């Protein structure tokens, strides 16, 4: 009896030590995971910063190009007579200002020495251009310190940013030459950067709290969602408004940004878009860009704790479960101690308690293993597939919104752009289906009409790819029903169609074609499947889903490698190498049959064959 008690006591102590050690490693693991998540978030912010920088540079080029078109289209020979110029070019001026979407309301002409000759004013409400007093535009000349540099050597599309009454502007230039080639003067367009920010960056979406901002070489805020922040030095200017705040980390941030072309870091700051800014730990990424003579740093920051809430909650729940298990062990030990007093049932109680302890230990180990696998799957899929998919959908959505803003006066084009935007957003929502792997409940498989299910899934995916791609559906009706999860079928079709679309993107002398065919499997294939898989011996009918394209085909040496995880022939911006791996995972899950045929310069065909039962 004493030996048994000693063994039981040792086991209880060992379990207690095990739980304590598990809590320690859970906390340590939390720190490691948090660092990895922070690094992943900073990488995402850096990619977003690069995207925002490209949007700004491209948009600024578009505005300069519009000014060039205006100069080419307008009659500037009568430069000394603004009334004649306005009369001859009223339509061009109206179209020009209207396309800027309230980003500019003035346009003026200066002589080669910088003397203003005449100016025009745009009334956005009346949609009308009028001649303005040249005195009204003198601030746009006197505050632009880069104007002299441009007049001495006119090479840049625009000058450096400057401020008038805490509002940021940048001047666009276009030189006007006489017939002999000498410079007659310059057209200058002052662009309101606050309006530019609202049009292009105000609605920039992150999955968590954060926003983009732009600063110049002196660390003065040029563009910001809070108008009060524009024109402020990020340290000295803010100290005047909030003298009691801690700016030590902002000084470190300023020094780091001034000494690096791009980067990412974590620092303490405040949310300046709140009525009373609260201190917060931020993760941030930045990149310096050149726009004409202006050099700006584009920065995007996000809430550090908000990104890690899920991990914190997971560790709290895990720690709670471990503590609960420890309490259960203590209770069980007391329970065992009390029942040992009854010698008549000692043996039975010992066996029962040991069995219960083993079951609980097994259950806990299974739960821990499941949680680890789930977090690993979530980390792999959400940071690779969803992030990759969002990366190529985000510029589609952003650029479509830009086009919608620029073509509000063209209802036919606007309708087409709305359809593109709707399809891209729908595709973005479709990508979120991948997150179902993180849900604790098991997916439900249902019997569904295979022809209808494939048709719906293909139609849904078809709305995402460009209209120029010819997507043909050849689906036989009433083929039967199959037991599966609808999201698995959608993901399988999505990955295969996406793979086919990307394969045909480089078609030079032929259109992009993708064909989806659903038909009964051949008798030879049916007999082979029954022979190879005894569990399919009772199945009488099989259906084959074929997805083909007219791309360049797959080389023979790559046919075996394309299904390996992370193997891809695309660039980092186009894919992660997980699409076909996901297809094979779904096929293995249901024990379906997967094969492919590919010929160089002809195309590739993927075949998925699965069992069905009759609709009758």
TrEMBL record:
Keywords: ATP-binding, Coiled coil, Kinase, Membrane, Nucleotide-binding, Phosphoprotein, Transferase, Transmembrane, Transmembrane helix, Two-component regulatory system. It is an enzyme of class 2 (transferase). Residues 384-614 form the Histidine kinase domain. It comes from the Bacteria. The chain crosses the membrane at residues 7-27, 311-336. PROSITE patterns: HIS_KIN. It catalyses: ATP + protein L-histidine = ADP + protein N-phospho-L-histidine. Its EC number is 2.7.13.3. Residues 342-373 form a coiled coil. InterPro entries: HATPase_C_sf, HATPase_dom, His_kinase_dom, HisK_dim/P_dom, HisK_dim/P_sf, Sig_transdc_His_kin-like_C. SMART domains: HATPase_c, HisKA. GO terms for molecular function: ATP binding; phosphorelay sensor kinase activity. This is histidine kinase. It comes from Enterococcus moraviensis ATCC BAA-383. The lineage of its organism: Bacteria, Bacillati, Bacillota, Bacilli, Lactobacillales.
């Amino acid at each position: 009896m004493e030996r048994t008690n000693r063994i039981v006591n040792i086991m209880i102590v060992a379990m207690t030590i095990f739980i304590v050690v598990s809590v320690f490693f859970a906390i340590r693991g939390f720190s490691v995971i948090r660092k990895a998540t922070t690094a992943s978030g900073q990488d995402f912010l850096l990619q977003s910063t690069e995207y925002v920088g490209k949007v700004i540079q491209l948009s600024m080029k578009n505005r300069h190009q519009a000014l060039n078109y205006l100069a080419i289209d307008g009659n500037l020979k009568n430069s000394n007579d603004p009334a004649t110029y306005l009369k001859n070019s009223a339509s061009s001026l109206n179209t020009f200002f209207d396309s800027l979407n309230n980003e500019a309301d003035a346009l003026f002409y200066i002589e080669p020495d910088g003397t203003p000759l005449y100016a025009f004013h745009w009334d956005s409400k009346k949609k009308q251009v009028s001649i303005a007093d040249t005195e009204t535009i003198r601030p746009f000349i006197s505050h632009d310190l880069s104007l002299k540099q441009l007049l001495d050597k006119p090479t840049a599309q625009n000058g450096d940013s400057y401020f008038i009454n805490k509002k940021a502007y940048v001047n666009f230039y276009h030189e006007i030459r006489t017939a002999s080639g000498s410079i007659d003067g310059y057209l200058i367009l002052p662009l309101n950067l606050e309006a530019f920010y609202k049009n292009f960056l105000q609605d920039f979406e992150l999955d968590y709290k954060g926003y983009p901002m732009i600063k110049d070489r002196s660390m003065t805020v040029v563009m910001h969602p809070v108008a009060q922040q524009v024109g402020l030095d990020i340290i000295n200017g803010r100290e005047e408004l909030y003298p009691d705040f801690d700016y030590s980390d902002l000084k470190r941030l300023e020094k780091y940004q001034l000494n690096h072309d791009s980067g990412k870091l974590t620092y303490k700051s405040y949310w300046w878009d709140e009525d009373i800014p609260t201190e917060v730990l931020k993760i941030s990424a930045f990149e310096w860009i050149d726009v004409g003579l202006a050099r700006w740093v584009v920065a995007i920051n996000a809430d550090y704790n908000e990104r890690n809430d899920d991990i914190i909650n997971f560790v709290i729940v895990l720690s709670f479960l471990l503590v609960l298990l420890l309490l259960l062990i203590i209770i069980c030990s007391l329970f065992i101690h009390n029942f040992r007093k009854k010698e008549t049932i000692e043996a039975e109680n010992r066996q029962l308690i040991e069995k219960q302890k083993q079951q609980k230990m097994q259950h806990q180990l299974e739960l821990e293993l499941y949680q680890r696998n789930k977090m690993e799957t979530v980390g792999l899929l959400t940071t690779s597939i969803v992030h990759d998919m969002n990366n190529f959908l985000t510029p589609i959505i952003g650029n479509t919104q830009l086009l919608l803003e620029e073509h509000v006066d063209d209802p036919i084009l606007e309708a087409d752009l709305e359809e593109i935007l709707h399809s891209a957003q729908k595709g973005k929502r479709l990508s979120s289906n991948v997150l179902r792997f993180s849900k604790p409940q098991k997916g439900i498989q249902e019997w569904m009409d295979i022809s209808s299910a494939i048709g719906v899934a293909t139609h849904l995916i078809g709305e995402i790819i460009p209209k120029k791609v010819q997507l043909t559906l050849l689906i036989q009706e009433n083929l039967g029903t199959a037991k599966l999860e609808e999201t698995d079928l959608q993901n399988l079709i999505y990955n295969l169609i996406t793979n086919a679309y990307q394969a045909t993107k480089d078609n030079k002398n032929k259109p992009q074609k993708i064909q989806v065919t659903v038909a009964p499997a051949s008798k030879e294939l049916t007999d082979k499947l029954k022979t190879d898989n005894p569990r399919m011996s009772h199945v009488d009918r099989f259906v084959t889903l074929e997805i083909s394209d007219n791309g360049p085909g797959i080389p023979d040496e790559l046919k075996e490698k394309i299904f390996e995880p992370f193997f891809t022939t695309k660039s980092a911006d186009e894919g992660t190498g997980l699409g076909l791996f996901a297809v094979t995972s779904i096929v293995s899950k249901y024990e379906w049959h997967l094969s492919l045929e590919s010929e160089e310069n002809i195309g590739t065909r993927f075949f998925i064959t699965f069992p069905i039962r009759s609709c009758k």
